[in-house]
Every structure is written in C-alpha cells, then in structure tokens.
Design goal:
This protein is an alpha+beta fold. The chain is 17% helix and 31% strand. The N terminus is likely disordered. This is L,D-transpeptidase.
Length: 180
C-alpha cells in the first residue's frame, strides 16, 4: 500500500511540475532570479524581442489554423476558437514560402524526403519560388538537422511527436498562415 501511495504522489508531483513549466510568463509568479531582457541603452535597434512560445502571432488571422513563423522557427496549432493547442520549434527548409495564407494541398504518410531522409506525416501547403513544394514533416530517425543550403528543399522538419500532432490537426484544406 505504501508503494502505491508513493507512486501516486510521484505521478501528482510530476504532473504539477509539468503544469507549472507551461504557465505563460504573464500568468506566472515572478521569480526572484528574473532578470531584465531590456537592451542596454543605445542598443534598441540591435535587440529583437522574441515572442513567448505560447503567444500566437497577432498578425496570423482568426479561426482554426496552423501558424508558421519564419523568423521564430516556430509553429502553432490554433483551434476554431482561436486558442493555441500546441506550439513547437521547427527547422526551416532551404527554401521558404512567402508570408501569406495557404491551404493544406496534400498529405503523405511515409516517403523519402527530397534530401534523401526517410520522413513521415508530410503535410504540403505551398509552392515556393522555383516550383519547390513546401510542407511540414518529421524525419523517421527523429533528426532535425539544418538543411544543406545547396539543395533546394521545402521540408520544414519537426520532432516526431510534433509531426504526429500536425498530422492529426492539418487535414487537406486546413488553413496554414505563414508570417515573417
């Protein structure tokens, strides 16, 4: 019985830790070790504020959508009520789509990527300059390496768990918004 109680307490503690680690900064209690992120005087032009990963870019529209921020190398999955349901880092391809609104054109479960890497959960949504198809995918080996800039590839790579979430969320016709 004591072993069961200890296991239950460990599970509750782990879940509490996870919940506290995912609280947006605006809702979290200030930490005594918090330091200012303001740039030094005279350096404002060099400083670029990074958005909080749980904050969907304001210029990404409304409704259910996948938001891909090129500069932040991040994706948000947003439900029909405008609530972010998942956010994750991605590795951009060597060719990027222009900012704008797109729709998922096709999906492929498993295939070899244009860089030769076996990939899964391919969600194509755009064609970039030069006719390069652009889409989200996850490498089957879990890698997210920087693409070879000599190759003209359009695969935006993500971790496999994020690829699973993308696959479940972004069906054919789903809205994809690309922001700078």
């Amino acid at each position: 019985m004591a072993g069961l109680t200890a296991a239950a307490l460990a599970a509750v503690g782990f879940l509490a830790y996870q919940a506290s680690a995912n609280v947006p900064e605006t809702l979290a209690a200030p930490s005594p070790k918090t330091t200012s992120t303001a740039p030094p005087a005279g350096h404002a032009a060099e400083h670029k504020d990074k958005k909080h990963p749980l904050t969907v870019p304001a210029d990404s529209g409304t409704g259910a959508r996948v938001v891909y921020a090129l500069d932040d190398r991040r994706v948000w999955l947003v439900n029909s009520k405008g609530k972010m349901i998942r956010s994750f880092a991605v590795m951009p391809s060597s060719v990027n789509p222009r900012p704008g609104s797109y729709k998922v054109r096709s999906r492929t479960g498993v295939i070899k990527g244009s860089d030769g890497v076996p990939i899964e959960h391919v969600v194509l949504f755009a064609v970039a300059d030069g006719g390069v198809p652009v889409g989200f995918s996850a490498a089957q080996d879990g890698s997210m390496e920087s693409p070879d800039r000599k190759l003209k590839t359009g695969g935006v790579r993500m971790k496999r768990a994020d690829g699973n979430a993308m696959w479940a969320f972004a069906t054919v016709g789903a809205k994809v918004v690309v922001v700078p």
